Amino acid sequence: MIILSLSDGKQSVLNGLPSNGVFSEKIDSYNWSPDGNTIAFGFGDLGSSYIALYNTEDSAFLSLSEQNFILITSVIWHKDGQGFDFLSNTDNADNPVIIYRYTVKDNSIHKVTDHLTEQEQTSLTTEFLPVKVE
Length: 134
What we know:
By secondary structure, the protein is mainly β. The protein has a single domain, classed as TolB, C-terminal domain (Neuraminidase, 6 Propeller). Helices cover 8% and strands 43% of the residues. It is built from one helix and ten strands. The strands form three sheets. It has a four-stranded antiparallel β-sheet with strand order 3-4-5-6, with no helix packed on it. A four-stranded antiparallel β-sheet has the order 7-8-9-10, covered by helices on one side. A hairpin with a 5-residue loop joins strand 3 and strand 4. The longest helix has 11 residues. The protein is globular.
């Protein structure tokens, strides 16, 4: 994933930021903060996913977890920009999707709920995620 600044032409390759420039195979999901300066995203290799932030104002990359979330399918910022929720798939058929919450204030991640139904997932992602306008 490449972020391009339209004001100065500067490019940032998010796949190359984690792990001191070692290329990450994938960006799972991403979403911009309400102020438009920070992007939260899931990154990793096949079968692994970690959550991170990238601030475009100071080009700062911050890995938020060492936990492998397997696959991060959605990132949903809170309207106040003080945190976000993200959906993570698991390899447990009885509990396939879990919602986690990251809060900026204490730089923490905690589980909000598990056993998320397919209908609940669809409702969350339809209502709160950005969509491509054609």
